[in-house]
Design goal:
Elements: H1 7-19, H2 22-29, H3 33-47, E1 52-53, E2 60-61, H4 63-90, E3 97-101, H5 108-120, E4 126-130, H6 135-141, E5 147-150, E6 160-168, E7 170-175, H7 179-187, H8 195-198, E8 202-206, E9 223-227, H9 230-238, E10 243-247, H10 248-257, E11 260-263, E12 275-282, H11 289-302
Helix pairs in contact: 1-2, 1-3, 1-4, 2-3, 5-11
Amino acid sequence: MIGSLTLDQLRVLVTIADTGSFSATGRKLGRVQSAISQSISTLEDVQGVALFDRSGHKPRMTEAGRVLVEQARHVLASAARFEAMAAGTRAGLEPELVIAIDPLVPSAPLIDSLSMLSKTYPELPVSFSTEGLGGSLRRLRSDAAAIAICLLLPTVPDDIAAYPLLRIDMQAVVAASHPLAALAKMATQGRPVTQADLEPHVQLVLSDPIAPESENYGVASARLWRFVDLGRRLDFLLGGFGWCRMPLHLVAGHINSGELVALQIENDPTPKEGLTIYAAHKRSRRPGPAGRWLLDDLKNRLQS
């Protein structure tokens, strides 16, 4: 039965529901009333469902008709999106924009640009992927994402075009109940925590689940517990299972409350000015119009 269904029939049905009558629908669509009636009769015959009760002076929509009107609205909206996406593709717009975001990247600075992107390209499907540290770079290289908002450690790879957006302050921390917390108190007296101090204790690290050994920047312990999710790592950190470096904005409240203790590490490789967050893409794969728009907007908002 679905093969005989037309968008025009659904459009007529929805218009009747909106205007309240066959005659008003004819006037709105520029057709004679008999053509409107014939369209609905054909729809009812083909689908085997009575959409209107004609026993009275004026046809009234049945319960089934009211339910199917809502389904018709969904179909028409989907068809409109299909047409808009096809038109955008004909004009050179990418059919979909996939953005990979590292877990350490704060969301707040990105919200305004992403909101404007959806208003500028309302019919463009946009999807996000947040994976372990290094996962965004892997997705760029496999062409699974067009743009990455990510850290690139220790340097920007040659095959990646990257634009610095912002910096995030990092702080090594440990739960107040952890043995390293006692050494942290000694740091205030001039003795920072050393590599030898850290090595016996579990370090909670973010890593790419596909290639967990690919990124070892900042590793100082012999025992590593690897996480993909930043929130879950914070839970284990607060539970006293180990130490790690965290974005300061995520742990400042816990430090102030005494739940976490800041560690001052001797010869810490983490830059004092913080880690740089980049917007990046493969040099060999230039983003489409929407992707380029997003890159320009992020740079204009965050680099100024």
